[in-house]
Specification:
The chain has two helices and five strands, in the order βααββββ. It has a five-stranded mixed β-sheet. Helices cover 34% and strands 28% of the residues. It is an alpha+beta fold. The radius of gyration is 13 Å and the shape is globular. The chain has a single domain, classed as RelE-like (YaeB-like fold, 2-Layer Sandwich), CATH 3.30.2310.20. α1 runs antiparallel to α2.
């Protein structure tokens, strides 16, 4: 299984990193980013680890979700590729998640 992170998800991860770098420290920002990336890597071996994402079911694309700390990692599987489509604070309004 290959993992591809979409531009949107990359941008969100960058925003998370920059936010914690600004309000906490570079060490904390790196730790949070690394924890999210490590969680994503687990999908190579356990692609269906995440539950179906009920907020995106209407798209019928099989979106699933994983959590890492306060962060929700949204992904879908297409052929032999896992696409990470979004990463965001799970305490946010879920309407922000919609494409």
């Amino acid at each position: 299984m290959k993992i591809r992170i979409t531009e949107k998800a990359e941008e969100r991860l960058k925003e998370i990193y920059l936010y914690y770098k600004r309000v906490a420290s570079i060490t904390i920002a790196r730790r949070i980013k690394d924890n999210i990336l490590e969680r994503i890597t687990i999908l190579k071996d356990y692609k269906e680890l995440g539950a179906i994402d009920e907020h995106l079911e209407y798209l019928n694309l099989g979106h699933r979700k994983l959590t890492e700390g306060n962060y929700k990692i949204v992904y879908r599987i297409e052929k032999n590729i896992i696409y990470i489509t979004d990463i965001f604070d799970s305490q946010q309004d879920t309407d922000k998640q919609k494409p």
